[in-house]
Amino acid sequence: MSDRKEENAIPGLAAQYGDYFDIGAAVNRRTIKTQQQVLAAHFNSVTAENEMKFELLHPQEHLYTFEAADEIASFAKEHGMKLRGHTLVWHNQTPDWLFAGANGEPSANRETLLARMKAHIAAVVGRYKGQIYAWDVVNEAIEDKSGVWLRDSSYLRIIGEDYIAKAFEFAHEADPSALLFYNDYNECFPEKRDKIIRLVRSLLDQGVPIHGIGLQGHWNVHDPSLDDIRSAIERYAELGLKLQMTELDMSVFAFEDQRTDLREPTAEMLERQAERYEEVFRLFRQYKEVLTSVTFWGAADDYTWLDNFPVRGRKNWPFVLDEQHQPKPAFWKIASW
Ligand code: GLA
């Protein structure tokens, strides 16, 4: 078989899912070059992995640095891909100046922080208005620890609980047609799921413009269980909002697994991963009315944030395309059904 023929025989993932949902990938400045072909072949949506986060776009109060984000936006445009925005308000990757007092005081007050948030959101959402169709407005505001609802963060301490509602209002003002998402991880664990639902319900009750819930989906070959994933999708869907998988990956290691001896995934891992992808995509297809996009947190196994994290010196292989950008067993399970 010639190379060309072989290429043709591999169905494009986004094309396969044309009647279901978008298929997205997180990209960065480097991968839009190193993975250009595989991105064009399989994905119709992209999210900037880091380039649109606060600290990268707005390192000082009067300095915006849009070059890297613009490159990703141009890449999406050139390839006719949708663009998701990630992320406006998050406790991580946010510069210290945002929370500092105006006149050398240790901490900003509520009014100052709200004004800074509003200026940031207006500038960033305004810049990509008409191109970014959906924003992760608030990321990870819920606490993982049992019994505590909202995560302790500078936003919460300085502004109070309504920083979340305000963020959505500012984003809606900046681009009334953008779809606005609340995004979080461990989203299928029942207790955290219920805390997310409590938050979203309270936003809806107050008339806050929120249109969707982003399920990050940093999963592994064992967890969360399919039942927990199904219940989470059902419960979230009951809120009447759209759902998107925003950061899907399927680590081949269980959460507690610390092994660092592997140079490639074992056959058993690949098989288990293929089964997991098969079952979760089957579920996703069943919920196509509410699930509008499935974005992987990367594209192929040559680059993943899970390399060296959380275990140093360990590579991971969480995607359906391998290090050479070729289909893995998991790819075939989700590309044909
Ligand atoms: C969270 C964030 C992402 C990314 C991942 C790790 O899920 O939402 O932007 O930082 O952590 O890469």
SSE order, one letter for each helix or strand? HHEHHEHHEHEHHEHEEHEHEH
Strand order of the largest sheet: 1-2-3-4-5-6-8-9
| SSE-based structural type | alpha/beta
> What is the residue-averaged pLDDT?
96
Helix content: 25-40%
The largest β sheet comes out as: 8 strands, parallel, barrel
Into which percentage range does the β-strand content fall?
A: 15-25%
Helix count, DSSP H or I runs of 4 or more residues = 13
Please give the radius of gyration in angstroms: 20 Å
Low-confidence stretches: 1-5
The unique ligands bound to this protein are:
alpha-D-galactopyranose
Shape designation:
globular
Number of strands: 9
For the record, give the distance between the C-alpha atoms at the N and C termini, rounded to a whole number: 25 Å
Main features:
about 325 residues, alpha/beta, 9 strands, about 40% helix, disordered N terminus, binds alpha-D-galactopyranose
Structural overview:
The structure is a single chain. This protein has 337 residues and is of the alpha/beta class. It is built from 13 helices and nine strands. It has helices at residues 3-8, 13-16, 31-34, 36-42, 54-57, 67-78, 110-127, 154-159, 163-174, 190-205, 226-238, 267-286, 329-335; strands at 22-27, 45-48, 82-89, 132-139, 179-184, 212-215, 218-220, 242-251, 291-296. Strand 3, helix 7 and strand 4 form a beta-alpha-beta unit. The two termini are 25 Å apart. 43% of the residues are buried. Alpha-D-galactopyranose is lined by residues 86, 139, 185, 216, 247, 305.
